[in-house]
Amino acid sequence: MNMDYSLYLVTDESVPTNQLLRVVGEAVEGGVTLVQLREKRSEGKVFYEKALKLKQFLKENYAHIPLIINDRVDIALAVEADGVHIGQKDIPVTAVRKIIPESMIVGVSVSNVTEAKEAEKNGADYLGVGPVYWTKTKKEKEALPEGTLEEVAKSVSIPVVAIGGLKVHNIETVRSEYVAGIAVVSGIMQAENPREAAEAYRKSWCD
Ligand code: TZP
Ligand code: MG
């Protein structure tokens, strides 16, 4: 699968399940290129059912948009998602690689050059770097020191996606030839009009 990381939508648990598909669909219409299902509180059954619905929805309506599952390799496999995204405290990339088919992609969250190089060496397909800016969506984590995103992006040859507090008005601060895309939660998931929000991010990223 040829991946386009330019506008990576990460879902928000606070959007009710019955709204999730509508919001994701509108966001894709607005230019989102990749979708990650991120559930931090759901139990396995709920997470699996959401993942299955989202996978079917994308397959039927937007077959070119890959679905990535956050944290849960088992759920990613069970719903035949396109990939899985793991953090530093999750099952390591080397172990994930042993379980998933060659065709599935693995993304890893990193905060510094050491973690980035390690993840790349261990077989990550792309990296998420953040929070670039402090965000209510991940309150517990401080923003990375200024310059970290660029430094990390330069240190590896796999695609790097910026995440955390990215708003239409600050996108220019993360734009770099080394950064493959931007990942957004609240700016799109909480928008009154997710389609227009995605369009605005696209425009801001591409301008
Ligand atoms: N990882 C680093 S920051 C973040 C994640 C999942 C949340 C980003 O959310 P928002 O609402 O786009 O700032
Ligand atoms: Mg995780």
UniProtKB/TrEMBL annotation:
Gene name linked to the record: thiE
Highest taxon, organism lineage: Bacteria
GO MF entries: thiamine-phosphate diphosphorylase activity
Pathway: Cofactor biosynthesis; thiamine diphosphate biosynthesis; thiamine phosphate from 4-amino-2-methyl-5-diphosphomethylpyrimidine and 4-methyl-5-(2-phosphoethyl)-thiazole: step 1/1
Enzyme class at the top of the EC tree: transferase
SUPFAM superfamilies (alphabetical): Thiamin phosphate synthase
Catalytic activity: 2-[(2R,5Z)-2-carboxy-4-methylthiazol-5(2H)-ylidene]ethyl phosphate + 4-amino-2-methyl-5-(diphosphooxymethyl)pyrimidine + 2 H(+) = thiamine phosphate + CO2 + diphosphate; 4-methyl-5-(2-phosphooxyethyl)-thiazole + 4-amino-2-methyl-5-(diphosphooxymethyl)pyrimidine + H(+) = thiamine phosphate + diphosphate; 2-(2-carboxy-4-methylthiazol-5-yl)ethyl phosphate + 4-amino-2-methyl-5-(diphosphooxymethyl)pyrimidine + 2 H(+) = thiamine phosphate + CO2 + diphosphate
Domain Thiamine phosphate synthase/TenI: 7-188
Name assigned to this protein: Thiamine-phosphate synthase
Cofactor note: Binds 1 Mg(2+) ion per subunit.
Function: Condenses 4-methyl-5-(beta-hydroxyethyl)thiazole monophosphate (THZ-P) and 2-methyl-4-amino-5-hydroxymethyl pyrimidine pyrophosphate (HMP-PP) to form thiamine monophosphate (TMP).
Organism: Pallidibacillus pasinlerensis
Positions of Mg(2+) binding: D71, D90
EC number(s) per entry: 2.5.1.3
InterPro entries: Aldolase_TIM (IPR013785), ThiamineP_synth_sf (IPR036206), ThiamineP_synth_TenI (IPR022998), TMP_synthase (IPR034291)
Protein family (similarity comment): Belongs to the thiamine-phosphate synthase family.
Record keyword Transferase present: yes
Co-factor(s): Mg(2+)
